[in-house]
Design goal:
The complex is a heterodimer of chains A (597) and B (159). With 597 residues, chain A is an alpha/beta fold. In chain A, 39% of the residues lie in helices and 14% in strands. Chain A has 24 helices and 19 strands. Chain A is globular, with a radius of gyration of 26 Å. Chain B folds into 2 domains: 8-67; 79-157, Glutaredoxin, CATH 3.40.30. The chains are: A alpha/beta (597), B alpha+beta (159). Chain A: Belongs to the complex I 51 kDa subunit family.
Chain lengths: 597, 159
Amino acid sequence: MEKYKMHILICGGTGCRASASEAIQNNLQEAIKAKGLDDEVQVVMTGCFGFCEKGPIVKILPDNTFYVEVKPEDAEELIEEHIVKGRKVMRLLYVDPENKEVISDSKHMGFYKKQIRIALRNCGFINPENLDEYIARDGYAALGKCLAEMTPQTVIDEIKESGLRGRGGGGFPTGLKWEFAAKNIADQKYVVCNADEGDPGAFMDRSILEGDPHSVLEAMAICAYTMGADKGLIYIRAEYPLAITRLKVAIKQAREYGLLGNDILGSGFNFDVEMRYGAGAFVCGEETALIHSMEGLRGEPTVKPPFPAESGYNGKPTNVNNVETFANIPVIINKGASWFNKIGSEKSKGTKVFALAGKINNVGLIEVPMGTTLREVIYEIGGGIKDGKKFKAVQTGGPSGGCLTEKHLDTPIDFDNLLAVGSMMGSGGMIVMDEDDCMVSMAKFYLEFTVEESCGKCTPCRVGNKRLHEILDKITLGNGTKEDLDLLRNLSNVIKDTSLCGLGQTSPNPVLSTLDNFYDEYLAHIVDHRCPAGQCKALMQYVIDPELCVGCTLCARNCPVDCISGERKEAHLIDTSKCIKCGACMEKCKFNAISIQ
Amino acid sequence: MAKIKLAKSKVEKLVEICKSFDNKGSELINVLHKAQETFGYLPAEVQETIARELNVSVAHVYGVVTFYSFFSMVPKGEFPISICMGTACYVRGAEKVLEEFKRQLNVPVGETTEDGKFSISCLRCVGACGLAPVVTVGERVYGRVSAGDVADIIKEYQK
């Protein structure tokens, strides 16, 4: 890396690539060539920077200038001004929305200030397709240390002492899990990386795999060393083509460097990794279901015990950890358990990555110490609610987490606190909702997901969730009764208590938490036949206020079914019998003349 | 479902795919991935051939195909349209966008227009939540789509 004077880092995460970051890369390279600076300036496509809301992001080193919302046509100016003349391109810098201050270094931005990056340490920093860059950031030092200086048991003890808990949602102590797998004697054992990130709205695992694939390979090798396995499998979603490509590159490079394969670093330890592809089944995030899927079967969970540590893949002892869990391991070995366990809360150590999304200003991927409050995450890092609307709820833990409200905002986020308030950590999805979101519809939306994703093996989950969904549907259509609410609650509790795996045991959470926190909203649907958030189509009508309408015709021109009539400069009218309630008119109206009744 | 007869070359291709995975039943999912990549979808006849080659029952193959949402038994359109229904997209209005696509193309989710040009499906999170709601057409990703943009997106592919 030292041969270049300057480096231009471009986010190559999925979000930024969707906004043409590859074209930016090409244009930058051309502009550099045109100036004859090929030998001095290097353009690197990195993993995700996290600040997706402001993507595509371009960062220039060594001066740490962080450009946001860059377009391919800005490339020439960036090179001409910043690289050649040494002047920052002011119009592409981040402006603090509160005090309008221009901030050029990301570490001073509200979004990054409170973050501590352990699992995401290399994302947006190194070229994920270059092993040397990973090594330059202490990569494979932890594996070297384990093989040369530590016994399997001392490695396990270190992980146990660190207090690391499974980041996939279970929160089970990782060191303990490794110890179980190590204790079972067998001729063949397996290490499995669960990269079947199924939570809609959570994309931390993919970002780690896309931005720092070697951290996962290194950790898998360390795990294999502790339990005496020589084979690793990465179970990854087929829907993640970029992550798959980057992993394949990483595996190939690691083999070439002798960091995977036989006699790693001359220690006599053998380990190699293969990929297995998921095919779109949420339940495969559950470890027994995942193992069945890898065996070529339907991904249905089985009763534990036996735990995979005894009898997993092909009936052999298997240790399954999630991507983010693995990404923490090398740092713990390098910096020590006592460094790691000082970060976080009493029972949840270290940091957690969250995918912050929904009605929030700064959508993105963040990593904060456990124990950070929801308020800090939503208001300080997330920059508050979009369009100045009112915060209504935050849903943590993916489709089977709970919806938390204003009163929970000061709850420090960790595994146990979230469970105590009726939600869960899950894999770290965090969806923020505002006053326009109907909580009954949200519960229905989540149930729709679980109904579709239930594997059908056990009755409470297969039938129970379907019934829950039907009742919620009935309520959103305005046909619910008060008895339905009791039924919802009873049925939810039965499903939770009697389902076989984590999916059914948690799927009623959105129903229960919205019943607890938004009971009045349910009542409004049932008693008043009204959706307070104005989202339930059956219970609403779009109307134009003749006082406010100036007759600009914009709504009529944007109506997809031509149901708005009216002469120019005269108040318009919506034909409610033809209206499909798509909301396009309301979105376009510049005079707030259209409302929902 | 109507039977179609697989061309000999297609059968040979399938046999080859199965062979590349040592005709092992445990490789079924990998075989199906490869087969779908080659043929675009997995009609009954493809499943029958795979079952024969891997020496497993057709019911087993069918069970696996229908279990995973990635596998499809119907062909996709020339321009497959997918609307992200992940939570982040949903709260930013993905449902309205979906409704609009369904209305304009006049096909339900999971089906293809009569001319074979467009098919509509829902997907769960492409990981571009900053651009929500997201629609993909083939490899192309459209961000911050509203119901009003739908006609323009369709028009791009209708020429």
